[in-house]
Amino acid sequence: MAKDFLPEYSQMPYGSRYRPLFKLFAGENWRFVRKDGQPVEYDTATQAIDAARACVKAILNPVIRAEVIEPVAMLDEVAEWRQRKEAEAAEERARAFLGPETLFSKGRQVVVERRRAR
What we know:
By secondary structure, the chain is an alpha+beta fold. It is built from 2 helices and 7 strands. A 3-stranded antiparallel sheet has the order 1-2-3. The chain has a two-stranded antiparallel sheet with strand order 4-5. Strands 6-7 form a two-stranded antiparallel ribbon. The N and C termini lie far apart (100 Å).
């Protein structure tokens, strides 16, 4: 049988103070709001119920953390290596394909000879 999600808030008198209680699911036992492993206590029942609501809200909406990683020197070396390789490849393409004396005919490279114009 699946439990129905039905948060409830309450308080329990404890001496002259109140302890906040909450349930997340129907049919579940009441749980104390705890801080450092010990149940917390409040002066009024309203404060206790508000603390129970805040505890359930903290359980349902946890704090999301993000970390920023500093760039590593090795990553800079990799970027420099890639730039150097791209420059070498561009030079090779320019020399092989874009030279003034090179043409392609039917997928074959043809060398062009220039003669003096009359």
